[in-house]
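Example 3.2
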Amino acid sequence: MPDLEINWQRCGGEWCLLASCDPPPYATGVYVIWQPLLFVRRRRVVCVGQGAIRACLAQHRGDQNIAYHGKGTLLVTWAPCLADAKDGVVRFLAAKYRPYEGLTDPRAKPVSVNLPL
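Structure, written as tokens:
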């Protein structure tokens, strides 16, 4: 049972495309960006993070380090999260998915959540 149950967002019932995702301006929380691998059950997480979702995703769209991993399409989801739990949730997600990019606060105590993938 996770420490915190969060509501991962989708776009029209599907995972959102990073290239065209347009979250509400007020959306804040945690997010996961991943590369779907066709014909393979595993997905590779590119980045986990937190903050103002719209601004963070806009920054990642222009980041060559993120784009490098998106040979084709990158997907994203985000979830509102309690402000005092964000660091711990990102640390938990990073430990679980081992993303290519993104920094976590090593002092944060991991806070487990229901996983989007």
